[in-house]
Amino acid sequence: MKKTIQAIILLTFSISATANWFNDDKQKPTQQQEQKTYTLKLAETWPSNFPIFGDTPKKFKKLAETMSNGRLKIRIDSKNKHKAPFGIFDFVKSGQYDLGHSASYYWKGKDINTLFFTSMPFGMTTFEQHAWFEYGGGQELMDKVYAKYGLKSIIGGSSGNQMGGWFQKEINSIADLKGLKMRIPGFAGEIMAEVGAKPINISPGELYTALDRGTIDALEWIGPSLDLRMGFHKIAPYYYTGWHEPGSELQFLVNLKKYNSLPKDLQTILISAMKLSAYQMYDQSEHESAKNWATMKKDYPNIKIRTFPKPVFDALRAANDKLLKKLAASNPLSKEIIESQTNYLRKIRAWTAISDQAYLNSQSK
Amino acid sequence: MKKTIQAIILLTFSISATANWFNDDKQKPTQQQEQKTYTLKLAETWPSNFPIFGDTPKKFKKLAETMSNGRLKIRIDSKNKHKAPFGIFDFVKSGQYDLGHSASYYWKGKDINTLFFTSMPFGMTTFEQHAWFEYGGGQELMDKVYAKYGLKSIIGGSSGNQMGGWFQKEINSIADLKGLKMRIPGFAGEIMAEVGAKPINISPGELYTALDRGTIDALEWIGPSLDLRMGFHKIAPYYYTGWHEPGSELQFLVNLKKYNSLPKDLQTILISAMKLSAYQMYDQSEHESAKNWATMKKDYPNIKIRTFPKPVFDALRAANDKLLKKLAASNPLSKEIIESQTNYLRKIRAWTAISDQAYLNSQSK
């Protein structure tokens, strides 16, 4: 998912810190507000017509415009237009754009606590994490992180459980990871480095050739929903199951000053249209993954599905725990978020184990 | 979930068949419509303040009223008021109520094809079924079934994967099911009868006593989210994992004539508020199940989680397939829906197997 990070130089905007404009004033719109049209500009990380990810802001736009009877107008600029896919946070913070569609963990260089709201290695699946966001305190923690930048972050759609990636060789022990050149960015890349692998940054357009020529031994991308078009299944025989992004959630960003200037009905339309588009993106991801996986298997029946053996997971998990411990020690809010996620995961996974997991296992014997 | 069916005598309304009013006219609202207030009456199957299920229409009401700036007023009547929990279909069909909140499979006596839109034994999980509804043709099939009654049905929230029930004795073979007196209504009850069990109808208020005194040997209810308050864990040691309702989805019902009389913006607000409330009910169900399961385990650490052995599932599945085959042969639309669900399940389960299922299994070794 973090596919184009390394391809683009982050444009940095020099912006004075914005105040926290959030207020909970639930006044009815005045007659003037009721007739006023608000044009909101949205900047997305994705290129024009990027499937699934890019469909989500379009769905949001249509819902918001129809529900508001045209009082909200949403103008979407893709990266082709604004040229700064990783400038979304700054765009919306400064008010240059009112809204954004991106992924929270792209901003970890600005604020480490934005890291936790996309997907964490060994963390929650999408349906577990949605419960955390809505009922387990996740949204409140995300508000705490973003409010100080004058921003509100709302769930932006899940890609589902991301696959562990395409490998040229089987991974049978931790020794097989030593020196393995793999395209795997972000926090998962740090974990891989911790156990001796060599995370390498390669731009998306060059990934296929790099894997084909052995410049890299492995790479992770997303899953069948978006891997099919990349063609990796034609050149790498092993497709590993996921562990590093078990439920990657995108984000909508909202400039709070602009949000607070809207009448209450349009505020609710805005947030509801975002959330509904987000839930439906998860449906779309699952649908596209199912469809594309069937196509891949049909055309390339020899794709070998593998899962890392337990000792490999044990080492990766130990590295993960070590890095999280370091994070928690360095920042009280990080500690609070890590504890919330860890406790919630423990509780909800015990339920998943006797419900969906037990059911799926009983039917695949 | 089908908890109160047997407790209440279905009130039948004598209504002339309503025409199919559905039209796709996407006109902008006139100025008159823009100012008009529409009061919509909703009848729900649930008693007042029934948790989770009953919270969903309340959430819908709040969203619809706020987004419409009061132009939509929703009045909710619970079963305490209208006295006919299984009269919702007829209420909304006749226009006595504009909206309903219930479950599609309650209407199988009126139209067998309503059976398929809640949850089918050995069928899809909630996240699989949501993809089917939104992207796999599920909504279109549901429209086909309901349009001839002048109704529209929209997803109404999932209870998650329902547990297989509370048992006094362990089930080690199909012989243990012969003569087993179990409270298990609906299609799953028919499957159980097919393999020799004795499905028995007992009103919800008497279930605890019946299980305690041995009038029945087992019962299914919902899952930890709503089982905790029933207290079954205090008297039945075995809690079986689910197979008969792997993703039970409630439904909103809409009177199409009323729907078509609304301006386009309010139509979209109505449907969006329903869908968003539905997705969030699934989050709430997962959250409450996780929380209540932790409580049950803490207070009664000896609850024994069991899964039917493979030969038992094989027999139940054979019975299920036989009953479905009979249904498909008797009705062309049943055949179309069964084929759509069977094909979609095959495709999406292959994806679930290498994504969420593989991940969950790799982390619980």
From TrEMBL, chains A, B:
Residues bound to substrate: 162, 183, 220, 245
Keywords from the named record: Metal-binding, Signal
Q: Which residues bind Na(+)?
A: 221
**Protein's name according to its UniProt entry:** ABC transporter substrate-binding protein
**InterPro entries in the record:** DctP_fam, SBP_TakP-like, TRAP_DctP_sf
* Superkingdom, natural source: Bacteria
* Signal peptide (UniProt feature, chain positions): 1-19
The record lists the organism as Bathymodiolus thermophilus thioautotrophic gill symbiont
Q: What is the lineage of its organism?
A: Bacteria, Pseudomonadati, Pseudomonadota, Gammaproteobacteria, sulfur-oxidizing symbionts
Gene Ontology annotations for the cellular component aspect, listed alphabetically: tripartite ATP-independent periplasmic transporter complex
